[in-house]
Amino acid sequence: MTDRALAVVRAGALTTVQDTGRPGHAHLGVPCSGALDGPTAALVNRLVGNPPGAAVLETTLSGVAVRPRSAVVAAVAGAPCAVTVDGRPAAWGAPVHVPAGAVLDVGPAVKGVRCYVAVSGGIAVAPVLGSRSTDLLSGLGPPPLADGMVLPLGPPTALHARVDVAPRPSPPGELVLHVILGPRDDWFTADAVRTFTSRAYRVSPASNRIGLRTEGPALERSGPGELPSEGMVLGAVQVPPDGRPVVFLADHPTTGGYPVIAVVRTQDLPAAAQAVPGTPVRFIAVRAR
């Protein structure tokens, strides 16, 4: 049994293994998946000396606790939270030495939703279609963490970063999503399109890795009928029959039959990973570049 491994002491509400995902398989019905907050996942990897695509842990709200079998360097960032090593306070947003057998405890998010935990060597579960990411929709990749699970680690590849703390944006007090209208905005009345781009929505508690659901004014369609299923992309804003927009995130389905009123700019999506339920959401229309 290798000593390059992590034992899961406390799995938390939903902790998954994520990397940069498995793009290029939508024609097979496989979403890209990967870390919802990609820039933060890359940051914690840099802090511990991993390549940016190494697999990390993505926690949801309640954190995680793990015990390495050998000494490792770890880094935690994303949603601000308390970090301890065997009960002693440790740094958030900076490299932390964790001795063999010590418990690295990542506490509940104080603000935001998701923390990212990198460990030197990366999480080395078996890749599926070129990625180690957990895909909650298709079931590909490793299952969500459970207490007692053991995760293999890869060999360290470089020295960790020499920083005291790495600055990162705070979780959004208001989520501003710039959108390019279409391809199905003509399925909605002119008033509905104006409402979509001028009224405030809120993040729904029903949001998850598949989509950010919103609460707010319903968008009225311009006529009856339904679309045949068509391809869906990351950031597509689909409008189901209740009229409330849903922003598709990393584990979104690759096809769908509800009209897509707009598509969110990719660079705005990491902030959606940290938007807690009740966060105000504004959709701002921009021109395609």
Topology:
Elements lengths: L4 E6 L5 E3 L19 H11 L7 E3 L5 E5 L3 E7 L2 E5 L2 E3 L5 E3 L5 E6 L5 E5 L30 E3 L22 E7 L8 H9 L2 E3 L7 E5 L14 E2 L4 E3 L7 E3 L6 E2 L3 E5 L4 H4 L7 E6 L4
User: In percent, how helical is the residue content?
Assistant: under 10%
Main pleated-sheet profile: 7 strands, mixed, barrel
Shape: elongated
Distance between the termini: 53 Å
Average pLDDT number: 95
Succession of helices and strands: EEHEEEEEEEEEEHEEEEEEEHE
Low-confidence runs of at least 5 consecutive residues: none
**Which structural category do the helix and sheet elements fall into?**
mainly beta
Beta fraction of the residues?
Answer: 25-35%
The strand order across the widest sheet is 12-19-16-17-14-13-20
| Rg over alpha carbons | 20 Å
In total, the number of strands is 20
Number of helices: 3
